[in-house]
Amino acid sequence: MSTSVSLSLRDVHLAFGRNQVLRGVDLDVARGATACVIGPSGSGKSTLLRTVNRLLEPDRGDVLLDGRSVLGDDPDALRQRVGMVFQQFNLFPHMSVLRNITLALRRIRKLGEDEAVAVARTHLDRVGLAAKADARPAHLSGGQQQRVAIARALAMQPQVMLFDEATSALDPELVKGVLAVLADLSAQGMTMVVVTHEMGFAREVADQVAFMDAGVVLEAGEPGAVFEAARHPRLRRFLSQVL
Ligand code: ADP
Ligand code: MG
């Protein structure tokens, strides 16, 4: 596994036209820490994650990995360091699970076939799917497909992992297996930002919970402080609706 880095967002602003979506986001995630981002729909959680791997460019502010701004970096190089997993798994349907993972290893990490297969198998094993290497995605459950997507991201040896509602599209009985993979990854010291509606996961796994509302991190702290001693009325109201 590659070494994790710390992640900081400093006063990040971003507008889509006249819609000011991020209004000065500040967030610090220590090396190896897991931050869960919670908050209402439309508050800017996905937009925040997208500024970290430069799928979106902030209008103002900075994004830093280990204290160094990423805004001048080559986006493709940055996306190797920052892995991202979405609600929709986006696997290639016509390729085997193994091929889905080796493709980027060969094209981007420039590994030879044998090494790419070995790396892919290692990561499939890590998410509990070693036996499914030759299956087509359509023959897997949604939870298994999401675990393949996670293995694919991990195979690139990222230094930070971003998860955008990775379990929101799954049937309830499949959520646990995916959250278990995230908890493992967190325990292994990956720096992670997890946007989630799973408050149990946030409470148990996160080192830090950040509540986003209307384009800012309104309150952040240890899970106990956020869930049991929220200061902002907006956060208290949000928690009363989701807990
Ligand atoms: P969340 O993930 O918290 O639900 P988003 O970051 O997806 O919130 O969206 C925040 C706001 O930004 C919403 O008003 C949404 O309509 C707007 N938005 C998000 N992505 C785009 C885009 N690509 N173009 C225009 N508006 C967008
Ligand atoms: Mg979102």
TrEMBL record:
The keyword Membrane appears for this protein: yes
Topology relative to the membrane: Peripheral membrane protein
Gene3D superfamilies per UniProt: P-loop containing nucleotide triphosphate hydrolases (3.40.50.300)
Keyword list, A-Z: Amino-acid transport, ATP-binding, Cell membrane, Membrane, Nucleotide-binding, Transport
Protein's UniProt keywords contain Iron-sulfur: no
Xref: InterPro entries: AAA+_ATPase, ABC_ATPase_HisP-typ, ABC_transporter-like_ATP-bd, ABC_transporter-like_CS, MetN_ABC_transporter-like, P-loop_NTPase
Subcellular location: Cell membrane
PROSITE patterns membership: ABC_TRANSPORTER_1, ABC_TRANSPORTER_2
GO molecular function: ABC-type amino acid transporter activity; ATP binding; ATP hydrolysis activity
Segments forming domain ABC transporter: 7-239
CDD domains, A to Z: ABC_HisP_GlnQ
GO cellular component, one term: plasma membrane
Domain of life: Bacteria
Pfam families membership: ABC_tran
PANTHER family registered for this protein in UniProt: AMINO ACID IMPORT ATP-BINDING PROTEIN (PTHR43166), GLUTAMATE_ASPARTATE IMPORT ATP-BINDING PROTEIN GLTL (PTHR43166:SF9)
Family per record: Belongs to the ABC transporter superfamily.
Name assigned to this protein: Peptide ABC transporter ATP-binding protein
